[in-house]
Every structure is written in C-alpha cells, then in structure tokens.
C-alpha cells in the first residue's frame, strides 16, 4: 500500500483550512485517511506560529515507515527540521515560449530596419544638395 503525507482541505468556500494527513495514495483528497498529524491555515500571516502546526514525532515515524510527502508537505517538514528538502532548479522556467521568442525577433528586425532607414534619411539629405549643385 502506497502511503502519502498530504493536505486534506476543509473550511468553507474561499476560506481554506487544511489538515496534514497520512493517507493511502489511492484515497480521495478529502476522503478517508489513516492519521491526522497537523494543520495548515493559509489565511494567517506567514510569520504566525499558528499557520502550520505539525506533530514532528508522528511525521518522523511515518517517514521511517515509507510515507511519501507531497511537495507542500515536504516544505513544511523542511521548515520544521524533520526532513531535508533538496532545492529545485529549473533554468528553463523563465525562458519565453516559442511564439514569444518569434515576436521578439520580429520586433528586433523591425527596429533594426527603422534605424537603418533613419540613418539613410540622415545621410541622403546631406548628399542630395551637393549633387544638385554639381549638376547646375
């Protein structure tokens, strides 16, 4: 049986409140769970002690048995000092998509063409009067 440590949602509409539970991975999010090991209230301030309450002894027990925490619960466990969470690094996340890259390239080409046209316009009037005076 795959056991996971995850959040179970409670509270009313637009007023979330979560229980940190140990449950069978196949059970529904708000369904049957094995044990409640803490709570999480996202409406409280981030520096509040009441925001995340966690029974660290039970969390250590379930981790030793083989329970797999979700990403959010793993963050809570890392903050509590129960389990070290490896930092993630995705350098491609900030890169724009294909279409945005194409639009940026087109914009750069148009800007370059405008600059070349402006330089040609600056140089052309200076050359034009000299040619007219030479013809006359």
Automatic annotation (TrEMBL):
Q: Which GO terms describe its molecular function?
A: structural constituent of ribosome
Keyword terms of this UniProt record: Ribonucleoprotein, Ribosomal protein
List the biased-composition ranges (Basic and acidic residues).
Answer: 95-113
Q: Which GO terms describe its cellular component?
A: cytoplasm; small ribosomal subunit
Question: Looking at the Swiss-Prot or TrEMBL record, what is one Pfam family this protein matches?
Answer: Ribosomal_S16
Please give the residue ranges the record annotates as the region Disordered. 82-136
Domain of life of the source: Bacteria
Entry's transmembrane regions: none
Checking Gene3D superfamilies in the record gives: 3.30.1320.10
Q: Which GO terms describe its biological process?
A: translation
Q: Which family does it belong to?
A: Belongs to the bacterial ribosomal protein bS16 family.
* The protein's name in its UniProt record: Small ribosomal subunit protein bS16
Q: Which organism is it from?
A: Sphingomonas yantingensis
Q: What is the lineage of its organism?
A: Bacteria, Pseudomonadati, Pseudomonadota, Alphaproteobacteria, Sphingomonadales
Q: Which gene encodes it?
A: rpsP
